[in-house]
Specification:
The complex is a heterodimer of chains A (about 270) and B (about 775).
Chain A lengths: L1 H11 L3 E5 L10 E10 L7 E7 L15 E6 L4 E6 L6 E4 L9 E8 L2 E10 L4 E11 L2 E11 L7 E8 L6 E6 L7 E7 L10 E9 L1 H15 L17 E2 L8 E15 L2
Parallel strand pairs in A: 2-16, 8-16
Antiparallel strand pairs in A: 2-3, 3-6, 4-5, 4-7, 5-6, 7-8, 8-15, 9-10, 10-13, 11-12, 11-14, 14-16
Chain B lengths: L1 H15 L5 E10 L10 E3 L4 E3 L5 E7 L1 E8 L6 E7 L3 E2 L2 E3 L27 E5 H5 L10 H5 L5 E2 L9 E2 L7 E5 L2 E2 L4 E2 L4 E2 L6 E7 L13 E7 L8 E6 L3 E11 L3 E10 L1 H7 L4 E17 L2 E16 L3 E19 L2 E18 L4 E21 L2 E21 L9 E2 L3 E15 L4 E15 L2 E5 L6 E4 L4 E4 L4 E5 L4 E17 L4 E12 L1 E4 L10 E4 L7 E13 L4 E18 L15 E17 L4 E15 L16 E2 L6 E10 L4 E10 L3 E2 L2 E7 L2 E6 L5 E2 L3 E10 L10 E9 L9 E6 L6 E7 L4 E9 L1
Parallel strand pairs in B: 1-7, 1-8, 12-17
Antiparallel strand pairs in B: 1-4, 2-3, 2-5, 5-6, 9-16, 10-11, 12-13, 14-15, 16-17, 18-19, 18-53, 19-20, 20-21, 21-22, 22-23, 23-24, 24-25, 25-26, 26-27, 26-28, 28-29, 29-34, 30-33, 31-32, 34-35, 35-38, 36-37, 38-39, 39-40, 40-41, 41-42, 41-43, 43-44, 44-49, 45-48, 46-47, 49-50, 50-53, 51-52
The chains are: A mainly beta (about 270), B mainly beta (about 775).
Chain lengths: ~270, ~775
């Protein structure tokens, strides 16, 4: 919302945006563990992937991958699911026999370069996407399409959601988080809009919702803010993002990224 | 508090028992043309010098005899009055303006002279005339933009709201319009200030050495007085600009006794949008009113009002309204020719409303306060003046009412818990002449604060609403272990503070002096804002069990020199610390947060600097050069050895830290027809944090940041010029007019308002994007008066 306001104030007057070169420092590389286990509703959820990379200079075009790590998830019954880098130097560790159960507790272990990283989380449930709605509104003289997709909040508990929309006309997906503070027990929705040269009749949108924990909500909320934009007069100071994965060998050398497990509801929507 | 008042009164009676063989001359200094009272006019005899107070009143006590009294004020002819003093007597004095042509539109244009004698340190006075001659963006004279040219005053950047004084935050400024608190000084997110320059008479900015009659904010006091209105003849004046227009009417209700002033201002850029079939709008308007009536020599009544609103509307799906309103009823009463009093009843509020129709969400929030204030000024003798008084403010905070904006909305109604507080205070302040060379002002303010019910407070383990996760090294909200309800007017938390104030001026000779000042200030209200510049939807919150009052100590020393040919030099240095400055845990959510204590840590601020100002006060060429070198920092250490604090517990620069700040403003009267003005600003870029790495997570790249505000935006500078054309032969005409042509940012410098780092949505490549707000902006304004 803040971004929206600033956009408005700036647009109203004489602002202009241009690309500039800024010399940036580069911090020593850190391990990044992207361990999101999403069990798509209606599938077995056997095939899962965990990605290991490191940080690099902000303007670098190649992201360094991490190979030779030991990656596994253990469930409450001590069954070990191994994740293996099947394509060399891809940093993608794949498991084909993962057994997801809603409400079960899982532990992630990553061993790399003499350090052991661990995290423990519960696999969370996700509501179904029930319906969609499309509307056209006029903003500053141009028509913009708005799409909503609805899901039912569980009124008996505090819920947090991770929303994702991938527009086929854009190179990267967009994320959002929601909580049910003002919507307890009501029908909730994901909301998506884009410039009219990116969102028009025929555009396919992959939209999803996943139940997440309060801590992951906080984490993703910060992450989305950092990624979306930053450093405007109405933006808050950049934060240090700390996920839930702990380096049990050396606490101060913490990894980036998060370990999360949940169901996910997806829908492909074609704009009319 | 009652005890204190009684002892003050006893003190007063014991002092007045002296001074019998002397007589008192008192009265009011007026502008001859319209009977506006003149604030700060100098009244001098060969024995004594004094000045008029906020209501134009003066009082001097002299031994029996004949005197030549000279009365002076910038831009006015010196008035000399002969008085034979053989009894207490009253003498009102009428000053005539220097400028004959086009009074008031071009007006009294001399710049405020440096007063080397008064123990006023860190005080800047600006007349509206000076402000109106400075070129500004879009041609609109602007009070806040003008004070940014003073030493020690900055803001976070172009188009950002509020101002920062000596490294203080925006919410640490006490902004008073006719004594009423203004909570948000900006229109259109900082592009304009809320004060209509036509309705303003005078302003003072106290950056330090703040007298004890002011309290409640730790950084500065901006005291603005509205005009009373011409009580001789009816006048209208106004201006037509590119963005907004103004119209003001003033005139007598009862000639020479009562007058009214009614001024309005509105922007109309949105009308052009409407014409082009665009159903979005963004506009602001404000209204200033004042009515006064002088019953007799000893009693006057004033009623002031202000109402301003900003409205944004995007296709009815996003509607945003906010603004201030104030009403103040004041009664000036002279108990004797030595004891002046003013009783004020003040109401002020700030409202913020937002409707997001696509979500079906409606939000209202605001702060209201009721202030009863009684101030006295006792002119005890030539050498001693006593100011004393008391006030009490009752606050009513609405942090937010959330409701569905339409029937099919998924939003549930929610009233965030309202908050109430009471803030009484009493003060004593002495202005004393110790010797011909040494003048001092000293005082004390005793302030109290009660956070009151009806409210429910959360209770936490060990009274600790923020916990630290030592595994992940992050701060998190604590879960309340219970709640405690406080009934109506039950005290939830209370604080009190003694705030000593001191300032002195020591005259080295007729033209030079050194001054020093110290003040302690307490601030019980906090603006909950975690952004570089506050936004209109930031809410004010009172101190409570968990949020402690901010306490500031400031020291300042200065050297003041009036040179030949109306030049003067002011050099000051300051050091300021603030305790209990709140800082926010990483990722704190502030909007509609009912338990704000869960995301707040107690930190501290410090700032220090050196300010220099070189002024040319009179003549064809007038203006000043100001340069400030300063630092403003914040630090929030961990509360124990295990915690990291914010920014690893290190000092970090505030967003409005400006290491170097040079500002030049000049005005040249070429002929009676043409006057030219120019501004130049050169300052260090705003402190910002640039990413020192990136990584990929879930298909998007994330910038990674190191310590806060270690980088700076590029150097900020711009040059602005203006030319004022006053058509000839206006002396005889009733309608008087002028044209103001100006160009802001003459050489079209693309100053970065910010540089953002983002992943391009089309190419997926990372890029740095500079946002610059104003390029070169030409404008023209037409001002008139009849």
């Amino acid at each position: 919302m803040k971004k929206y306001i600033f956009f408005l104030a700036a647009l109203f007057l004489f602002s202009c945006e241009d690309k500039v070169d800024v010399p940036l420092d580069t911090a020593a590389p850190k391990l990044v563990i992207d361990a999101n286990i999403f069990w798509e509703k209606g599938t077995t959820g056997n095939e899962q992937m965990i990605k290991l990379t490191t940080t690099t200079n902000y303007f670098a075009t190649e992201i360094p991958t991490v190979s030779g790590a030991l990656v596994q998830i253990t469930n409450a019954a001590n069954t070990v699911f191994n994740f293996v880098e099947t394509v060399p130097n891809s940093g993608e560790y794949i498991c084909t026999n993962f057994a997801p159960v809603v409400g079960d507790t899982y532990t992630l272990t990553v061993a790399y370069d003499g350090q052991v990283y661990t995290a423990t989380e519960k696999l969370l449930a996700t509501p179904d996407i029930l319906s969609t709605e499309q509307k056209t509104v006029s903003v500053f003289g141009s028509d913009m399409i708005q799409v909503k997709y609805f899901y039912q909040d569980n009124g008996d508990e505090e819920n947090y959601y991770l929303l994702k929309v991938k527009n086929q006309n854009l190179a990267i997906p967009e994320y959002g988080v929601q909580d049910d503070t003002f919507f307890q027990g009501n029908l909730m929705f994901g909301f998506y809009t884009a410039e009219n040269d990116k969102l028009f009749a025929g555009t396919v949108l992959n939209m999803s919702v996943a139940g997440i924990s309060k801590r992951y909500y906080n984490y993703m909320n910060k992450l989305i803010n950092i990624a979306g934009n930053s450093q405007g007069p109405f933006s808050s100071p950049p934060v240090t993002l700390r996920g839930n994965i702990v380096n049990s060998t050396n606490e101060t050398n913490y990894p980036l990224g998060y370990f999360h497990l949940s169901e996910i509801s997806k829908i492909n929507y074609t704009v009319e | 508090m009652y005890k204190l008042i009684i002892s003050i009164l006893c003190f007063y009676f014991s002092i007045t028992a002296f001074a019998q063989d002397k007589y008192t001359l008192s009265g009011v200094v007026y502008d001859k043309k319209n009977n506006e009272t003149i604030i700060g006019a100098t009244i001098a005899t060969n024995k004594t010098v004094t000045s008029t107070n906020e209501y134009g009143f003066y009082s001097i006590t002299l031994p029996k005899g004949s005197y030549q009294i000279t009365v002076s004020y910038m831009g006015y002819k010196l008035e000399t009055v002969s008085v034979t003093l053989d009894s207490n007597s009253k003498k009102d004095i009428y000053l005539e303006e220097n400028q004959q042509v086009l009074e008031e539109v071009v007006v009294k244009s001399n710049i405020e002279k440096t007063n080397i004698r008064k123990p006023e340190i860190s005080l800047n006075k600006l007349s509206v005339a000076t402000i109106k001659q400075m070129p500004v963006v879009l041609g609109e004279a602007d009070i806040i933009k003008s004070i940014l040219f003073l030493p020690g005053v900055t803001n976070a950047g172009e188009g950002q709201s509020g101002f920062n004084v000596r490294g203080g935050a925006v919410d640490q400024n006490l902004i008073l319009l006719d004594e009423a608190t203004i909570y948000n000084s900006s229109h259109l997110f900082g592009f304009f200030s809320v004060f209509n320059p036509d309705a303003i008479k005078d302003l003072r900015l106290y950056k330090g050495g703040i007298p004890s009659r002011y309290g409640g904010r730790v950084s500065s006091v901006l005291d603005i007085y509205q005009k009373e209105g011409n009580n001789k003849v009816f006048h209208m004046n106004g201006g037509i600009g590119l963005v907004s227009s103004r119209l003001l009417a003033e005139g007598p209700i009862v000639k020479n006794k009562g007058s009214f002033l009614f001024g309005g201002r509105a922007s109309y850029a949105h009308l052009f949008l409407k014409l082009s079939n665009n159903n979005n709008s963004a506009y602001f308007y404000d209204l200033n009113t004042k009515i006064n009536y002088k019953f007799n020599k000893n009693n006057s009544l004033y009623l002031s009002g202000y109402f301003g609103r900003d409205v944004f509307d995007i296709a009815q799906s996003f509607t945003n309204t906010y603004g201030n309103s104030i009403v103040n009823l004041r009664w000036n009463h002279l108990f004797s020719d030595k004891l002046f009093s003013n009783l004020s009843m003040i109401y002020s509020d700030y409202y913020y409303g937002l409707t997001l129709d696509f979500v079906g969400f409606n939000w209202d929030s605001g702060i209201k306060n009721y202030n009863l204030k009684y101030d006295f000024k006792n002119y005890i003798s030539d050498n001693l003046k006593l100011n004393f008084g008391a006030n009490a403010i009752y606050y009513d905070f609405n942090p937010g009412t959330i409701e569905p904006s339409k029937a099919d909305s998924g939003i549930n109604f929610k009233q965030l818990e309202k908050k109430y507080a009471f803030e009484p205070a009493a003060y004593l302040d002495f202005e004393q002449k110790i010797s011909e060379k040494l003048n001092i002002e000293y005082g004390i303010r005793y302030s109290l604060f009660y956070r009151l019910g009806n409210s429910t407070m959360n209770l936490y383990q060990n009274d600790n609403p923020v916990v630290f996760d030592t595994d992940l090294q992050i701060y998190e909200k604590a879960t309340p272990i219970g709640t405690q309800h406080y009934g109506s007017n039950k005290t939830i938390a209370s604080y009190n503070n003694l705030e000593p104030r001191f300032s002195m001026a020591y005259q080295l000779n007729d033209n030079q002096s050194i001054k020093a000042g110290y003040n302690r200030m307490a601030q019980y209200l906090h603006l909950i804002s975690n952004t570089a510049s506050p936004t209109p939807l930031d809410v004010w919150t009172p101190s409570d069990k968990y949020i402690k009052p901010q306490l500031c100590d400031q020291f300042a020393v200065g050297y003041f020199h009036n040179l030949k040919n109306d030049y003067s030099i002011e050099i000051e240095s300051f050091y300021k610390t603030v305790k209990n400055r709140m800082d926010y845990i990483d990722g704190a959510d502030l909007i509609a947060n009912e338990a704000i204590e869960q995301v707040i840590l107690n930190g501290k601020m410090r700032s220090y600097g050196l300010e220099m100002m070189f002024k040319k006060n009179e003549g064809k060429l007038k203006g000043w050069i100001s340069y400030t070198i300063s630092r403003s920092e914040q630090k929030t250490p961990g509360r124990n050895a295990l915690e990291t604090g914010i920014n690893n517990g290190n000092w970090y620069k505030n967003a409005y830290d400006k290491l170097h700040n040079l500002a030049v403003t000049a005005n040249y009267k070429f002929t009676n027809k043409w006057t030219f003005g120019a501004n130049f600003v050169l300052q260090s870029g705003q402190p910002v944090t640039y990413p020192n790495a990136q990584y990929v997570y879930q298909g998007i790249t994330i910038p990674s940041y190191g310590l806060r505000n270690e980088n700076r935006l590029p150097i900020y500078h711009h040059l602005d010029i203006s030319a004022t054309l006053t058509p000839k032969n206006q002396r005889t005409k009733k309608l008087k007019s002028e044209w103001v042509f100006s160009i802001y940012n003459l050489y079209n410098r693309k100053n970065a308002a910010n540089i953002s780092f983002r992943q391009n949505q089309d190419t997926a490549q990372n890029e740095a994007i500079r946002l610059s707000i104003f390029g070169m902006v030409p404008s023209v304004t037409y001002n008139f008066k009849f």
